[in-house]
Amino acid sequence: GSSWNYCDFETNLCKVLPEFNLQSGWIRRNGRSGMGPPYSDHNGNESAYFLSLSSEIQSSSAALRTSIFLPTDEEHLCQIRFHYWVSQMSRTLMVGLQNFSEDTVTNIWQDPGELRNQWNVNTITINSTEKFEVIFSGIVETQRQGESVAIDDITFSEGC
């Protein structure tokens, strides 16, 4: 896929996530960074990059916003596929949808909390009659060392 709809975080360029390198709470790193797990990306590569929640995060959540997508239609639903890692029960990853006309974010997915300390993959399908943003939120309930939430290889279909 083109760099427009695919984010592997190997470079700082990711048009669909315009602020990920500025966004407080999320950092771009690899498994050799000395920041705890995961120690590789979802392909098992120690030097490949992904995003993870910073251990320095001050608040209880860190939001990663996409750029604004146009309304979907029946032929082109917006599908977002991503790999994720959540290490402990005190950490959660949620995906939310914010429609253009609303201030509130509707949660459309939350990590099931079963497969911890490993890379998992998930696909979300979005059907929206208006412009929208998608928000990946890492949530921290208690601060403990060596815990993390990470995201890798986000792919956005043409309907996004």
Automatic annotation (TrEMBL):
<dbReference type="InterPro" id="IPR051560">
    <property type="entry name" value="MAM_domain-containing"/>
</dbReference>
<dbReference type="InterPro" id="IPR013320">
    <property type="entry name" value="ConA-like_dom_sf"/>
</dbReference>
<dbReference type="InterPro" id="IPR000998">
    <property type="entry name" value="MAM_dom"/>
</dbReference>
<dbReference type="Pfam" id="PF00629">
    <property type="entry name" value="MAM"/>
</dbReference>
<dbReference type="GO" id="GO:0016020">
    <property type="term" value="C:membrane"/>
</dbReference>
<feature type="domain" description="MAM">
    <location>
        <begin position="5"/>
        <end position="160"/>
    </location>
</feature>
<protein>
    <submittedName>
        <fullName>MALR1 protein</fullName>
    </submittedName>
</protein>
